[in-house]
Structure formats: structure tokens, C-alpha cells
Write the C-alpha cells for this entry.
Amino acid sequence: MSRVLTAPRLTVLALLILLGAGVWLYASRSGGNASTASGDSAPDPSTGKESQAAKVPAPVEERQPAPDGSPAGENASADKEQPTEPEEKLATAVPVKADANPQAKSIAEALKTKTHPERLSAMLPPKAFDADAFARNPDLYTQAHEPGRVFQAAQPGRDVPALRAEGSRFHALKQGESAELVVRGKPGAPVSFTTFDMGTFAENKLSTVTVRADDKGLARATFVASAGAINDVNILAASPLASGDVSFKVEVVK
């Protein structure tokens, strides 16, 4: 015998069908949202292209500051400016007034008149030494600033003494300290000292000084490790009345 579906039964069946369709539609939408949120591209059914929702990047967690106010995270050290030590600057030579002493005046005269270039550089030959003129007026010779005199030693001979050092030729100084340089040559003869690496001589505050030897032939000059002198300083001494020359080396440290 066939079963006849009554109106109440048709109503219940329709509700069950609608309920099942709703469950299926909810499950389909939940799965699609999950794949889109994870970063996978979800193609649009109508166009076959990626949907705009798939291109939206996931939110990035904002980096929180550290308790001390500095940036936190693995790159925090790069954000924080590292302290640097101040650049060390070496002092430069202190200028000397044009009228400070006779040697300084001779330099000023050479610059003003554009004559006597031998007073300005050790690379230029000095004036020829005149023994008779020196004997008549020794001060006229010693008061001139001529760095190249240290290359004007006398030729060796029977009556020509050889210039030699008295005491050490090597000294270690701190900036501002001084050392006495002593050589032995002919008594009363002029001896010139020139520093080639900054520093000055206490006798005239310049880089070259000419002094007279005493009656024992000893000539003295005081080298000062003044501003600008650093590391190795080479000094040469010579006399036009003695053969050879004497080199000194001074190590200057800060």
C-alpha cells in the first residue's frame, strides 16, 4: 500500500532540506575564509583571478619599546646611536713674532724683501762661509737663520777636527719637554743645528739655531718637543770649521 505524504510531513521534510543546505553553505564559507586569511590566493569564480582580499597582508605586530625607553627587538642596537670617541687632533706649531729675536728678524726680512731664500729652507744652499768675516763679527753670522748650514761641513784635513757627539744622540721626550744636544768641534767655531720634523730650539724658538763652541770646542743647543712634534724627530748638526756631521734622533710621545 503506497504511503501518502500529508501536509505536516511535507513541511517537516522541507525544513530538513533547508537545514542541510544551510549547514553545507556555512561550512563552505568557513573554509574559504580560512584559506584567504592564511595568505593563500582565493580565485574569484566569475573572473578566475585572485580576489583583492588575498592581497591584503597580515598585520605585523608592532615592536614595543623596552622599559628604559629604547627600541626593543633584534635590531635595537642599530637604532641606538653608538657613542664615538672624539677625534684626536695634534697641535700645530706656534708662530713666532717677527721681532722675537735676531734669527726671526732675518726670516721676516727675507719674506718682506723676497731676498735671501737660503733663510727659508734647508733645501737651498746657504751663503758661502767666510772665516775672516766670521772672525771679525761672529754675531753677524750666528744671528742669521740658514737651515742649510748643516750641509756645509768642512772638508777633512790635517788641521780640521772631526765633529762628534758628546753624550747620547738618542732622546725620548714628552711634548713640552726638552733635551740638550752637545757636539765637540773646533773651539770658538760656529755650529748649526736643524730639526727636520718639527720642534724648536729654546735659544730662538725656531727650527734652526747657530751657536758658538766654547774654548773646549763644545757647542750646545736645547731641543724642545714643542707643539706639532710627534714620533721620530731627526736633527742634524754641522760646522763649517769641522768635518762630518752629527745626527740626533728624538722620539716624542703625547
